[in-house]
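BUG: 3D viewer hangs when loading the predicted structure for this chain

Environment: internal workstation, default settings.
Expected: structure renders.
Actual: progress bar stalls at 90%.

Input used:
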Amino acid sequence: MKLKSFLYLFLILFTLSTCNKAKLKGEWAVLEGRWHWYRGWGDGGTSELKLDLKERGRYKLYRNKEKIEYGRLVKKDGYVKFISEKLFNNKDLLLNTKMITYMDNDSIHIAKTDCTDCALSTFRKE
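Structure tokens produced before the viewer hung:
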């Protein structure tokens, strides 16, 4: 029984460690850093929101100093997608279903790519 439990645990850890995280290098390196919510439409955003993007493909979303969402970044179809690792989301600003649809040196737009009139958020770099 212990061997079966060990194998199950090993498979779970192996699966989680092989996820395709997006390392922020090359053209994506401009994303690394702290971003402040600037404006949005239908996103529930306020100037209290801060998005921290790490070079190793991780993100954290804060409202003031409280972490409200966190997870990893994945490259998909030419976009960087947010994959939340928070078990229960408070539905304030769900990045889990969104992607970075536009970026430049000082701003990023976050939205769903398959929806033309869905919520849109713009963050500016600190």
